[in-house]
Amino acid sequence: MSSAKQRYGRPEAGLRLRLHTIIFEADTRAGRAFDLALLVAILVSVSVVIMDSVERIAARYGDLLEALEWFFTLLFTVEYAARLWCVRQPARYARSFFGIVDLLAFLPSYLVLLFPHAVAFQGIRVLRLLRVFRILKLGAYITEYRALGRALRGSARKILIFLSVVLMAVLLLGTTMYVVEGPEHGYTSIPTAVYWAIVTMTTVGYGDLTPHTDLGKLIASVMMLLGWGILAVPTGIVTAEMTARRFNRPPTTRTCHECLSEGHESDARFCKDCGASLPAYTHD
């Protein structure tokens, strides 16, 4: 959910508030059950789309797959309508990232019905997998997701400097290989030799270019050994940043009435994003 002020708005009482709590929060038994059921529906619906693309399976189970596809299309349509109904500012939710993802969960099926030959619309249905990220707000995933985002932002400068060093090393070693091996062994230019250096240092090893001289093989061996360490450095940088920013308090899916930002602490009285008073923490 976005942390912008006055985002979608949460109803204050009645059936809309109860439905909002079930759909948008996961600290209650009903909310967890809804999210888990939705997760299963998303994964099964994507599996249906994938199986429908296999000609042998589609020829044998085409009617069943089509029936399942329309079942999930109607299910996601009803769920989207419920999400719009239980927020006070449905237009803002519809324009949000997850609002667009929710719309794409069922809109392609209707477009295929209107335009039967538009095969591209069928592939768009795989975007339903994006909705899995909504379900991953359960429990500690809220904190871990935000911690990862902060760690990536905090370590961006270090990673950029590290990548610049790797780029210089690849350029120098690639140029060296161009001089050592030469065009007669396939290293026809410096860009070609740099391409080989990147493939070797990342331990991909396509095999389209290989060193033939003893010195070239020695350089290649050094680059392969360097590649192992180089691949581990960005991981270490991000991990160190995450450790430094680690959260100690358990996360919740407690939601602000005004801006719908999530992850507030269980004893918080005011929203950390917009400053509005928070409702009482409800959980089972």
UniProtKB/TrEMBL annotation:
Cellular localisation: Membrane
Pfam annotation, one family: Ion_trans
Source organism, top-level taxon: Bacteria
Membrane association type: Multi-pass membrane protein
Any one GO BP annotation for this protein: action potential
Keyword entries, A-Z: Ion channel, Ion transport, Membrane, Plasmid, Potassium, Potassium channel, Potassium transport, Transmembrane, Transmembrane helix, Transport
Every Ion transport domain range: 32-241
GO cellular component terms given for this protein: voltage-gated potassium channel complex
Residue stretches in coiled coil: none
Main location: membrane
UniProt key word Transmembrane: yes
Gene Ontology MF: a single term: voltage-gated potassium channel activity
RNA-binding in keyword set: no
Transmembrane intervals: 33-50, 98-119, 159-180, 218-240
Name of protein: Ion transporter
Lineage start: Bacteria, Pseudomonadati, Pseudomonadota, Gammaproteobacteria, Chromatiales
